[in-house]
Amino acid sequence: MSERAGFRCGSVVIAGRPNVGKSTLLNALLGQKLSIVTPRAQTTRQRILGVLTRPGCQVLLFDTPGLHEGRGRPLNQAMNREALAAIAGADAALLVADAARWTEADEAVLARLQAAALPVVLVLNKVDRVRPRERLLPLLQDVAGRHGFAAIVPVSALRGDNLERLLPVIGALLPESAALFPADQITDRSERFLAGEILREQLMLALREELPYGVAVQIERWEELPDGRLAIDALIWVERESQRRIVIGAGGERLKAIGRSARLELNRVLGRRVHLATWVRVREGWTGDDRLPGQLGFEVR
Ligand SMILES: Nc1nc2c(ncn2[C@@H]2O[C@H](COP(=O)(O)OP(=O)(O)O)[C@@H](O)[C@H]2O)c(=O)[nH]1
Ligand SMILES: [Mg+2]
Fold this sequence. Notes:
Layout: E1 8-15, H1 22-30, E2 48-54, E3 57-63, H2 74-88, E4 92-98, H3 104-115, E5 120-125, H4 136-144, E6 151-154, H5 163-172, H6 191-207, E7 216-224, E8 230-238, H7 241-248, H8 253-270, E9 274-282, H9 292-295
Parallel strand pairs: 1-3, 1-4, 4-5, 5-6, 8-9
Antiparallel strand pairs: 2-3, 7-8
Helix pairs in contact: 6-8
Bound molecules: guanosine-5'-diphosphate (GDP) and magnesium ion.
Residues 22-23, 35, 43-44 line the site of magnesium ion.
């Protein structure tokens, strides 16, 4: 940890409506996959901390579930609470929006950040989709008039375009403080948590709209085998028997394919060979129960 004078360290919340690329941005800034990404809204369920250490500064980046208005199901409300808690604890915010358009949902997130009186950097993501580049200009002009942003930075998180411009801008907003994490630590989440998330990501990617909304993954066993492999047993929780059949698929083929792609991703992310076994279990109506997420690996902090 650094005690040097002039060192800056602080928390930065990555906020935005669902699906604008918040988790992709976190992973791109870290150069490592930490937060799962799918084309579906509401992929991220909890705050994920990514620690970015550079000469002179350490940024504690919090990826959050997309903020949305309206009440919705208990799981949705829990996700909103996670995002709001991260905003309350932050020194600055990255407001991620789609460079193609500014919507009422973006405006609502901005209002939350204004209420928290945080300095806000507007990150206009997915610029790779805006062609020709001049099409950005009217939107830039419009958003610049909405708030005194500390900076407005167009990026493509997916391609890694312009991300290097973000870091100095963020660093300047942090308080002077010693680093809070060792320079080689990139998160406070366990490998076990990340493994559950990676399986959930593969479920979401494979099942798309068919996926039961409240699917949850629980890691039951985590054991080093004598041959050097890591044995992971995972339970996939769904709400109904019919959903269990969807996840398993005819002859178990679907679950087998999901398990295979999750194992390959686990090998890559954990940097070791993994043996993965999965079971699908039914727990009726757990998404209607606020207490259950805590019991299903949704570490509520
Ligand atoms: N074209 C393009 N797609 C992106 C970019 N960043 C993210 N995406 C895609 O947008 C979708 C949602 O991304 P995700 O990071 O999960 O969004 P989140 O809900 O805000 O965390 C995924 O399909 C990403 O691949 C980008 O810079 N360009
Ligand atoms: Mg996300």
